[in-house]
Amino acid sequence: MSFFVLTACAQEEKPNTETSRKPNIEKTEAEWKAQLTELEYEVLREEGTEKPFTGEYVDWKKEGVFVCKACGNPLFSSDTKFKSGTGWPSFFDHLGDSSVAEVADNSYGWNRTEVECWRCGSHLGHVFEDGPDPTGLRYCINSVSLEFQEK
Known about the structure:
It contains 2 helices and 9 strands; from the N terminus they run H-H-E-E-E-E-E-E-E-E-E. It is mostly beta strands. The protein has a single domain (29-150), classed as Beta Complex (Metal Binding Protein, Guanine Nucleotide Exchange Factor, Chain A), CATH 2.170.150.20.
């Protein structure tokens, strides 16, 4: 199975960006593989990226909360979702300090900020500084890393 990584937006590392932290939920790779589909495992545990415009939540318009597919941690409200045109669900804010962690990602020679689930450390996507008001941020998140809970 092949995945792309699309986006070459460079950004400076934020002062509050973490470089390492220990998740609150720890499982063996065998436990994660037993719980997740092949694509979910590739994205959530191996930092892969689903193909643009293929994810379930790209054009999603229902009201509710998006939670981590791996552990159920609440991450984003539908109130902060916007159409970015990038091919992945985008949000201008997350639900708070215990929802996501931002981690420096210098892979592939880029200086970006990875977004991980605060609780289990699963890869969700990346955050960029080209989003709408009021935050100016664009949390570009893989649909496969999310599960939706309707209001």
